[in-house]
Amino acid sequence: MSAIEYRPLGRHGIKVSPLTLGTMMFGGQTDEAVSRRITDKAFEQGVNFIDTANGYNAGASEQVVGRLIAARRQQWVLATKFVNPDPDGAGPNNRRNSDMQAHNSRRAFIKQVALLSAAGAAGLILPGCDKPPKVVDGAPAVIRQRADQVVKFKYPDNPSFDLVYLADSLGYFDGSRTRPDYIGKIAAPQIIPLVGTGEIDFGTRMVPLVISAIASGLDLKVVAAGGKTLQEAPHMKYFVRADSGIFTPKDMEGKTVGFNSFGACAEFVTKKYLREHQVDVDKINWVVIPDNQGEQTLVSRNVDIAIIHPPASGGAEHNPELRKLWSDYDLDKGLGGMAPYSGYGKFIRANPEATQDFVAAIAKAANWVNANPDEARKIVSQRIGTRLELVERYAYIDDLIITEPPIQYYIDILQSEQKIRPGAVSVKDVYTNDFNPFAKAKA
Q1: Which of 23, 39, 148, 279 satisfies CB 3.0 to 4.6 Å to 274 for a cystine?
Q2: What is the pLDDT, as a whole number, of residue 147?
Q3: Phi-psi region at 88: left, alpha or beta (left = phi > 0; alpha = psi -120 to 50)
Q4: Do 317 and 295 reside in the same domain of the chain?
């Protein structure tokens, strides 16, 4: 891996890191203490570009960001947006990009951020000339682990259907010297960047995010496969209001689509499908809405289409005000739906036995979920505090053995979208089955 190479931003002489720190959950699900750790870790790794928006937690994100970057305001490049839906807004002039909303948003942003000594103008300064730290090659190396050592891996404590929580509940870490260390809620868009910098040791997010992170020089590797998209257990679903006139892909032109993040399945699978149906994706307004807010945002008419992942899609599925258009299975038969588990390269190399324990435990949990889908739903229902009937079924790839087609699928997409250079990342750069005992048994 190479060190971070800063890129020019426009024609102003400003340079930014290829990765941007997203702050959608700051001031909300991610509390300020965790947000500060995330921001400090990103800065230590050479990230100098931070993004917020007036719609993130009703402006709380902008306030938190202001406090977090105040001490280094001349070393950060700050971006914000005013076109996201205002969850507290009422009336046509309080949402999207009307002139009045733009004026009010700029004024509110200046008040929220400038008064906290972190105004955007001060933040738009080239970072220092210190060379950013190099990250080492992500290929795992074997380093012996002490026999009596208990290794804890840092992991998000998010309310979701997740194999780590299930493996822990089912006792699949028992008998090993490896245990999860839950560090609090981490917003979905931040998981892969934090794995790549070591703030957390393992995380699960979509393949294109991992590929992009590797292409940008972060140190991580996919160590286990993840979800398997079935017709009866899709990875994500597309909803409109029941009275909507949207029925075909072409109907989406000129509409607003809400989805959980750019750079992942919801963006790339959807755009690929729409282009195949002669839809101009540039005529669609794409906005970021957390999965757990997608249903309400759609009902309140802030978006026209909501792409929602389980378990949050269960509520939308049962809402009589909404209608399901299709699922990702209808779009690509599930090829783009695998959400694998990735590990921080340094942790993997230093703790090969713990990494094998991790993969073995979640692979056992995946097989258990496939054999006991209803029991798994009950456990998750209790964990996330959602009625059982709203927790949808999950399915996982057998033994979590990684195959190459889902990875190549996204490499091809990222190259066609000009997100990565041709040849910048190969399939073998992305994953390893070396820590999966089931893969070794079948070799």
Answers
A1: 279
A2: 54
A3: alpha
A4: yes
Please state, in angstroms and rounded to a whole number, the distance separating the CA atoms of residues 224 and 403: 10
Quick one: DSSP state of residue 388?
G
d(CA 308, CA 107): 32
Same domain? 318 vs 247: yes
Nearest to 368 by CA among 172, 209, 79, 103: 172
Is residue 142 assigned to a domain?
no
pLDDT tens digits, one per residue of 36-78: 888 888 887 888 888 887 667 667 788 788 888 876 766 788 8
How many CB atoms sit inside 10 A of residue 441's CB? 8
**Looking at residue 133, what is its pLDDT?**
42
Residue 276: strand, helix, or coil: helix
pLDDT for residue 165 is more than 80: yes
What's at 302, amino acid-wise? Answer: N
DSSP letter at 112 equals I
* Average of per-residue pLDDT across 348-377: 96
> How many residues belong to the chain?
443
User: Do 357 and 325 have their domain in common?
Assistant: no
Please count the structural domains in the chain.
3
Range of the domain at 250: 237-332
Print the SS3 string covering 79-145.
Answer: ECCCCCCCCCCCCHHHCCCCHHHHHHHHHHHHHHHHCCCCCHHHHCCCCCCCCCCCCCCCCCCCCCC
CA angle (185 as vertex; 354, 329 as ends), nearest 5: 80
> Does 243 lie in the same domain as 210?
no
Q: Is the pLDDT of residue 224 over 60?
A: yes
Q: How far apart are CA 258 and CA 267, in angstroms?
A: 10
Question: Do 54 and 192 fall into the same domain?
Answer: no
Whether 359 contacts 399, CB under 8 Å: no
Together in a domain, 345 and 307: no
Nearest to 396 by CA among 369, 436, 434, 435: 369
User: Do 206 and 78 reside in the same domain of the chain?
Assistant: no
Q: Which residues pair with 323 in a beta bridge?
A: 240
370, 408, 401: which is closest to 223 by C-alpha? 401
Query: CA-to-CA distance for 305 and 303, rounded, in angstroms?
Result: 6
Whole-angstrom distance, CA of residue 336 vs CA of residue 59 = 33
> Is position 139 within any domain?
no
Within a domain: residue 7? no
Structure tokens at 343: 């590990």
